[in-house]
Amino acid sequence: MSGNEEQVLKVAMPKGRIYKQASNLFREAGIPIPIEYEDTRKLMIELPDAKMEFIMAKPVDVPTYVEYGVTDIGIVGKDVLMEENKDVYELLDLGIAKCRMSVIALPDWKPSIHPRVATKYPNVASAYFREQGQQVEVIKLNGSIELAPMIGLADRIVDMVETGQTLRENGLVEQTEIFSITSRLIANRVSYRMKNERIQSLCDRLQEALAARV
Ligand SMILES: Nc1ncnc2c1ncn2[C@@H]1O[C@H](COP(=O)(O)OP(=O)(O)OP(=O)(O)O)[C@@H](O)[C@H]1O
Ligand SMILES: O=P(O)(O)OC[C@H]1O[C@H](OP(=O)(O)OP(=O)(O)O)[C@H](O)[C@@H]1O
């Protein structure tokens, strides 16, 4: 890394579906991060002129990098923030990668004596059903969650809905929306104090870029 170490702002960017929207927003804010990174396996991007360094992280790991301070800030979905419950500051709602967390079932769902709920988000699901006063067994899956009620692993699932296409194509219905999701800018607590001016100025630029969109 070149330049003054103190001044470099380290950012954890999520690989996958958030990257494109987040990188568009950064470019609109005047930060020339590449549009695509998929054609390389490079996991770090340095922007010496902007004194910024980006790491390409698995989305679910972004709060961990930020909590440990190996990056100063990061971008992450509200779903991951709720599930991971890390000790970080949530600075800005970026309004990108919109979707919602919902309870989903087959159309003929009926309450059962030993209800089972499959999800990628066991903490979110457990907290939700606890608040509802419903005792359920939560089963953790890592993907293709919609399969669970279809093949009898669970009665219901807690999962994200964006367009609703996955539900429609698999004959499932949304029972309840638990919360809406967008991506957030988060910061390490120490970095927020030590690099406050840099982080604040980035927030201002991102907010201006967001305001210019509407
Ligand atoms: N349709 C959607 N389904 C899932 N997440 C979505 C959707 N639309 C927006 N998002 C947001 O994108 C984030 C990252 O999703 P993405 O699929 O890239 O990562 P992931 O779930 O970790 O995938 P993988 O495990 O395949 O790497 C989610 O945490 C959520 O905030
Ligand atoms: O409402 P839709 O627009 O259909 O989007 C929702 C789907 O997208 C996500 O799955 P993802 O693509 O991340 O795949 P996976 O979790 O099954 O790996 C989510 O878990 C839903 O299955």
Automatic annotation (TrEMBL):
Cross-referenced InterPro entries: ATP_PRibTrfase_cat, ATP_PRibTrfase_HisG, ATP_PRibTrfase_HisG_short
GO BP annotation list: L-histidine biosynthetic process
Pfam family, one: HisG
Pathway: Amino-acid biosynthesis; L-histidine biosynthesis; L-histidine from 5-phospho-alpha-D-ribose 1-diphosphate: step 1/9
Location within or outside the cell: Cytoplasm
Keyword set, alphabetical order: Amino-acid biosynthesis, ATP-binding, Cytoplasm, Glycosyltransferase, Histidine biosynthesis, Nucleotide-binding, Transferase
Superkingdom of source: Bacteria
Transmembrane regions: none
Top EC class of this enzyme: transferase
NCBIfam families per record: hisG (TIGR00070)
Task of the protein: Catalyzes the condensation of ATP and 5-phosphoribose 1-diphosphate to form N'-(5'-phosphoribosyl)-ATP (PR-ATP). Has a crucial role in the pathway because the rate of histidine biosynthesis seems to be controlled primarily by regulation of HisG enzymatic activity.
Subunit (UniProt): Heteromultimer composed of HisG and HisZ subunits.
Family affiliation: Belongs to the ATP phosphoribosyltransferase family. Short subfamily.
Protein name: ATP phosphoribosyltransferase
Taxonomic path: Bacteria, Bacillati, Bacillota, Bacilli, Bacillales
